[in-house]
Amino acid sequence: MVKTIKNTKKTQQFSADIIIVVIIVLFGGLFLVLNKINEADKTNLEDVYKQATTTSNLIVNDLKKKGVIDNQNNVEVDLLLALDEAKLKEELGIKGDFAIVFEKNGNLVKIDAENGVNCVGSSKIVVNGVACS
């Protein structure tokens, strides 16, 4: 009977060691996967930034052509609020959702303070807790 007890203890120690190794390998694998995902995200962020800059320039130039923004960079609020986001997307060939917001000195400027309009564009986009119109 003494031999059986010794064998059982060795078997239990062996299986505990395997569990520890498996856990270490799993955490190592998880770390590698997350590291690859983070690297992919950095690349995607650069692409998204470039695309957003291009889209911004398209929209600003179109707003200037339509007289929404004049030569002194003043905004005709009534013309801006009358814009149809879907039509603008189609005209400019924009695929994703967008919103037009204004800032001055790093602070958000409400487009229409009386009606609480922070942005114009896709209603899927929320700026300061308010969906765009």
Structure description:
The protein has one domain (2-131). By secondary structure, it is mainly alpha-helical. 58% of the residues lie in helices and 11% in strands. The chain has helices spanning 2-65, 77-81, 85-92; strands at 99-100, 102-104, 107-109, 120-121, 126-127, 130-131. The model has no long low-confidence stretch (mean pLDDT 77). The strands form three sheets. It has a two-stranded antiparallel sheet with strand order 1-4. A hairpin with a 2-residue loop joins strand 5 (126-127) and strand 6 (130-131).
Brief synopsis:
The protein is mainly alpha-helical and 133 residues long. The protein is 58% helix and 11% strand.
Give the tags:
3 helices, two-stranded antiparallel ribbon, mainly alpha, 133 residues, elongated
Q: Helix and strand succession?
A: HHHEEEEEE
For the termini, the CA-CA separation is: 81 Å
| Silhouette | elongated
* Number of helical stretches of at least 4 residues: 3
Layout of secondary structure:
Layout lengths: L1 H64 L11 H5 L3 H8 L6 E2 L1 E3 L2 E3 L10 E2 L4 E2 L2 E2 L2
Antiparallel strand pairs: 1-4, 2-3, 5-6
